[in-house]
Design brief:
Layout (H helix, E strand, L loop, with lengths): L5 E7 L2 E9 L4 E3 L2 E2 H4 L3 H14 L5 E8 L3 H19 L4 H6 L30
Parallel strand pairs: 3-5
Antiparallel strand pairs: 1-2, 2-5, 3-4
Helix pairs in contact: 2-3
Length: about 130
């Protein structure tokens, strides 16, 4: 583990998180704000710290991230994905536990587009026989 920065991109729905990981004391900064100020919900912070919990690296890395797109829920999961990918770059031994926990897989579920002739993506207009 050299004293350098590791970069990874995390994605979820329409949210994209650019993550820089550097050895430090566990400080997480998102869009120039502290993680507590940016993600005001406790569950979002728990989701973000999951990769560190799985790899037993709590407080060993500083995270600097920029997130854009989507809502807070998608952004925190994109950030989690980015942190997990950056941890793999930091140490190849982390890959196995992160993969087993399902943190390296990009959740590719995005909203389906509306089709012409339909009320929504799949919902149809009501059929009238007469």
């Amino acid at each position: 583990m050299a004293d350098s920065r590791y970069y990874a991109t995390g994605k979820r729905k329409t949210s994209i998180a650019r993550v820089w990981l550097s050895p430090g004391d566990g400080k997480i900064t998102v869009n120039g704000k502290e993680v507590e100020d940016y993600f005001d919900v406790e569950t979002a912070r728990i989701i973000i710290e999951t990769p560190f919990t799985v790899t037993n690296t709590n407080g060993k890395f500083d995270v600097t991230a920029t997130v854009k797109g989507g809502g807070k829920s998608g952004q925190c999961e994109a950030l989690r994905h980015g942190i997990a990918k950056a941890l793999c770059l930091a140490d190849a031994e982390y890959r196995s536990p992160l993969k087993k926990a399902g943190l390296l897989t990009r959740d590719s579920r995005v909203k389906e587009r509306k089709k012409y002739g339909l009320a929504g993506a799949r919902k149809r207009y009501q059929y009238s026989k007469r």
